[in-house]
Amino acid sequence: MNNEKLYLGSHVSMSGPDFYLGSVKEAISYGSTTFMFYTGAPQNTFRSPLDRCKIEEGRKLLLEHGFNEDKIVVHAPYIINLANIGNPSVYDIAKKALLSEVQRTHAFHAKLLVLHPGSHVGNGEQVGLNAIIDGIDEVLDKDNSDVKIALETMAGKGSELGTTFEQLAYIINNSKHKDRLGVCLDTCHVSDSGLPIGNFDEILTSFDKIIGLDRLLVLHINDSKNPVGAHKDRHENLGYGYIGFDALNYVVHHPKLTDIPKILETPYIEKNPPYKEEISMLMNNKFIEGWREEFLKKL
Ligand code: FE
Ligand code: FE
Ligand code: ZN
Fold first, then answer.
1. Among candidates 122, 66, 118, which has minimal Cα distance to 97?
2. Reported pTM
3. Is 212 left (phi over 0), alpha (psi -120 to 50) or beta?
4. How far is Cα 53 from Cα 15, in angstroms, rounded to an integer?
5. Which numbered ligand comes closest to the C-alpha of 189?
6. What region does 216 belong to: left with phi over 0, alpha with psi -120 to 50, or beta?
7. Residue 200 has pLDDT above 80, yes or no
8. How far does residue 220's CA lie from ligand 2's centre (Å)?
9. Which residues, by Cβ under 5 Å, contact ligand 2, an ion?
10. What are phi and psi of 97, to 5 degrees?
11. Which of 101, 123, 160, 215 could make an S-S bridge to 182, C-beta 3.0–4.6 Å?
């Protein structure tokens, strides 16, 4: 019944003692066919040395389980802010951290690095966008790997950039390294930015016109705790938010997006990951009414 190719998974942790081997085991335990990880804590740039990360052990296991390494996603730490050029030390730290993250992504044999474009924090949209372009160019000048940076669509809270397709297209089209840039579309963020996921074909048409569909490299599949246009960025479990299961399931199975890795970043339930349940509903094309209540009862 289900011979459709689907690269679907969640973000998984990457911490000691098992590091990458643990990440792969976690993805397998959810029934995933791909996954995303941070190469350290998401909120800081402290990173364990690569020789401690059990990369080869993890790779051996993932290849045995039939994962495609080209579809594995790394997420850069979200404190990197390439738009805050008004603060030279912050800008400098951001560039150093991004270069290290691109190199780490390559060391894990992954090819996709998701990056939040940045917040202009009062410097103004245009100044912020240009700072992002210069920062990315400076970093990619120093790295010759095949890692691509997927700029994430943002919800538009505070002074976030990358909230419209136009801003993302501007960054990509003005970079010297256009061939290494693409987009990660986050369904919660896009909905919060003002575009209803229920009209997904319209969203794809406009994405194609403004950015180009070949630039879409990663999808983040999240429901939203807030209505369209709320600019909040609070993810919700599948079927419990304003987007709803059917609209998200439509995105996941969209025939134009077959080759793109799809990653859940929905919230934990009482400190437990719900990804096995959510992934299975998407794989089976079927929402289970009350699944979260059932999940809670079993804890
Ligand atoms: Fe993100
Ligand atoms: Fe996301
Ligand atoms: Zn988010």
1. 118
2. 0.97
3. left
4. 8
5. 3
6. beta
7. yes
8. 5
9. 186, 220
10. -65, -40
11. 215
